[in-house]
């Protein structure tokens, strides 16, 4: 998805905001970063990755849930102030 839209990131000014991309814990940020930098070396001046928090066993128990639970923020691409 990111490489298909690389022109968006290339045209995005460095000083406005970083695009924060939330991932689940199955992704390896280092590998993604390395692979994306091969396509566009300055990509990490435009984006950052964060691992989305998992629902704890206690939280699942409190809600009467078990097994896989969808995290509401997973797969959402949002903007965050570059200074934070």
Give the secondary structure arrangement, pairings included.
Blueprint: H1 6-11, E1 17-23, H2 29-39, E2 47-51, H3 57-63, E3 77-81
Parallel strand pairs: 1-2
Antiparallel strand pairs: 1-3
* Binned strand content: 15-25%
Main beta-sheet annotation? 3 strands, mixed
Overall mean pLDDT stands at 82
Number of domains: 1
Describe the 3D structure.
The longest helix has 11 residues, at 29-39. 29% of the residues lie in helices and 20% in strands. The chain has one domain. It has helices at residues 6-11, 29-39, 57-63, and strands at residues 17-23, 47-51, 77-81. The model has no long low-confidence stretch (mean pLDDT 82). The chain is of the alpha+beta class and 84 residues long. A three-stranded mixed sheet has the order 2-1-3, with no helix packed on it.
Q: What's this model, at a glance?
A:
29% of the residues lie in helices and 20% in strands. It has 84 residues and is an alpha+beta fold. A 3-stranded mixed β-sheet has the order 2-1-3, with no helix packed on it.
Throw out a few tags for this protein.
alpha+beta, three-stranded mixed sheet, single chain, 29% helix, 84 residues
